[in-house]
Design brief:
By secondary structure, the protein is α+β, with helices and mostly antiparallel strands. It has two domains: 41-75 and 85-231, Penicillin-binding protein 2a (Domain 2), CATH 3.90.1310; 236-604, Beta-lactamase. The chain is 36% helix and 18% strand. Strands 2, 3, 4, 5 and 10 form a five-stranded mixed sheet that branches. The protein has a five-stranded antiparallel sheet with strand order 12-11-19-18-17, with helices on both faces. The protein is elongated, with a radius of gyration of 32 Å. The chain starts with a helix and ends in a 13-residue tail after the last helix.
Length: 611
């Protein structure tokens, strides 16, 4: 074959291939018609059901109910009876007319766009609308889901969802106007898991832009994919019980399963209620200006002085550093005196060994222990001793973020040498200037989550797993993060005397000096430590941490009550009820329980009323 014929043959082959391809694209594979006809098609979004959240016992914490958003395409609007429309949806007629006027005034800018006209209409109102939708041209409904909360508790924990605003849309291009997104709590932390994937129906418009029918009988419609369900670590009953105990109080409760780091209950009071979540858009301004700050989660965002519960940290570090031994004894004459100064203490037998110092919560013991650490000859000058001590405290998860899956968790506070150089001058401060750190006062601040984690560390004899809210973390990175043990660098043998002291603090015979006796629970070996944290704004804060039972612990708890006085007076009893409820599933001390529930400690908390 000569070159001329070869060229002709090649051209014919290419032409035939193109013809076959064009036939396939235009006749056989009609998906390209969808793209070519986009200007004549209307894509109606189908929103997925959001994933549900279950508690550790597979009870529903956050479920769904069907609602509808009423949409409007302003270009399709025709004259209709606005009074009838407003009666259908219990809508304000003045508001409806304002929206309609805005559409008319901006019709060129709006074009063929559709907007949400009324959000979250009930199934009952939707049914009424569906019967007479023909009367309201330009309006149609899209199915949505709204949240329901069977336990009527845990609002601050679960968080709320809201329509994505312009700032969120700018930073998250996969979302569109009208999409809902988790704003706080679990809803925010696990938005990627709970949200699901949107689908759509494709509808055909006629030459007058009226929606006529489904495109190709729905062949190219895409179903929405529901979000994935989550199993939380929370015990629904315990969460509801904790919120009941905290009524008329300001503070928080955190309960953790020590061996797994799973959060069993986390209460911030006063906090959001389920009713607040249902009306968050309408009530946001009121909630944001409430002087008790119900939208502020104290359990993970308040850096409180830990008070005497912090003595356990110093006891463990001092033993590890060889500064004290279990048998080390210090005297206390109602306090520790130094250079004209005094750190006061309550009356108790003296001298004391380590376990007795925990049992009776002796300030003088820890003043002398802390001074010894700051004068440790192996770490001098004092700046070196302080930095060594700070590194060890950080390993307990204090002064650093724990890394929980609660989105608003804060690190608390722990001073540095720069702090004291600034206050006192470089090289001009001593152990006596920072002695308040010995008893959890001064510049140290810990969140209740961190204090509960401290109780878990002691229960585990030296390690913790990052506290977390979800049991079945949906990806391997999350699963690994919430199963890894974090050791605090303290030999297991040093926990024995501290735990024994905590046990005696709760269970020692009456009159022997145990500060935590109000945390006793018959049949359960509770180990606890009180804290009475000084507060510049009124009465002292009441603090208590504990774990139980003493061997093979199942629960670790922190209770922090603002302006409630001594740790043994209120925080310890609340914690004991949490322990009893969780381990026994019921509380037998009914009169005691009712007295705690009815106590109004909120009255002692000074707040500034906003005008």
């Amino acid at each position: 074959m000569d070159k001329k014929n070869l060229l002709i043959a090649g051209i014919l082959v290419i032409a035939l291939a193109l013809a076959i391809r064009m036939f396939f694209l235009q006749i056989i594979d009609d998906k390209y018609k969808v793209n070519a006809a986009n200007n004549a098609l209307l894509y109606q979004t189908k929103y997925p059901a959001r994933g549900e959240i279950y508690d550790r016992n597979n009870n529903t914490l956050v479920g769904n109910r069907t609602t509808y958003d009423i949409m409007v395409t302003p270009r399709d609007l025709q004259e209709f009876d606005t009074v009838d429309f407003c009666n259908t949806f219990h809508a304000d007629i003045a508001s409806v007319r304002r929206k309609l006027k805005n559409y008319r005034d901006n019709r060129r800018k709006i074009g063929y766009q559709s907007f949400t006209f009324i959000k979250q209409v009930s199934a009952k109102d939707y049914t009424l609308f569906a019967e007479k939708q023909y009367k309201f041209p330009g309006f149609y409904a899209i199915g949505r889901t709204a949240r329901v909360y069977p336990y009527k508790a845990g609002a601050s924990l679960y968080g709320y969802i809201n329509e994505a605003d312009s700032a969120y849309l700018a930073n998250n291009p996969e979302y569109r106007r009208g999409d809902y997104v988790g704003i706080t709590g679990i809803e925010k932390s696990y938005e990627d898991v709970l949200r699901g994937k949107k689908g759509y129906n494709i509808m055909v418009r006629d030459v007058h832009n009226r929606v006529r029918q489904s495109f190709m009988d729905g062949k190219y419609d895409i179903e929405a994919e529901p979000g994935k369900d989550l199993v939380a670590s929370i015990d629904g009953e315990l969460q509801a019980y904790g919120e009941r105990l905290m009524q008329n109080k300001v503070g928080s409760i955190v309960a953790i399963e020590p061996q797994t780091g799973e959060i069993l209950a986390i209460v911030s009071a006063p906090g959001l209620t389920i009713e607040d979540l249902d009306n968050i858009r309408k009530d946001y301004s009121r909630l944001a200006t409430d002087p008790y700050k119900p939208m502020f989660n104290r359990a993970v965002m308040s850096a409180y002085p830990p008070g005497s519960v912090f003595k356990t940290v110093n006891a463990l570090i001092a033993q590890q550093n060889g500064v004290i031994k279990p048998e080390t004894r210090f005297s206390c004459t109602r306090g520790f005196y130094y250079g004209g100064g005094k750190m006061g203490c309550h009356g108790h037998p003296s001298p004391l060994d380590l376990k007795q110092s925990i049992m009776m919560s002796c300030n003088a013991y820890y003043a002398q222990t802390f001074r010894a650490m700051m004068k440790d000859p192996n770490h001098q000058p004092i700046s070196n001793a302080f930095n060594h001590w700070k590194e060890q405290v950080n390993k307990f998860g204090i002064g650093v973020k724990l890394g929980s899956d609660f989105p608003s968790e804060l690190a608390g506070t722990l001073p540095s040498t720069k702090t004291y150089d600034k206050i006192h001058g470089k090289g001009r401060w001593s152990a006596y200037n920072i002695l308040s750190l010995a008893i959890g006062q001064g510049e140290v601040g810990a969140t209740p989550l961190q204090i509960a984690n401290l109780a878990a560390i002691i229960a585990n004899r030296g390690y913790y797993i990052i506290p977390h809210l979800i049991k079945n973390a949906p990806d391997s990175a999350r699963r690994q993060k919430y199963t890894e043990k974090h050791y605090v660098g303290i030999d297991e043998e040093h926990f024995g005397p501290v735990i024994e002291g905590m046990y005696l603090s709760v269970n020692a015979p009456a009159g022997t000096g145990g500060t935590s006796w109000r945390a006793r629970v018959d049949g359960i070996n509770v180990c606890g430590k009180t804290g009475t944290a000084q507060n510049p704004h009124g009465k002292d804060n009441s603090v208590f941490m504990c774990f139980a039972p003493m061997e093979n612990p199942k629960i670790a708890v922190c209770v922090y009550l603002e302006n409630a006085g001594a740790g043994g007076s209120w925080a310890a009893p609340v914690a004991s009820l949490i322990v009893e409820k969780y381990l026994n599933r019921e509380v037998k001390r009914k009169e005691f329980e009712e007295a705690i529930i009815q106590a109004n400690l909120k009255q002692f908390v000074p707040v500034k009323k906003r005008r």
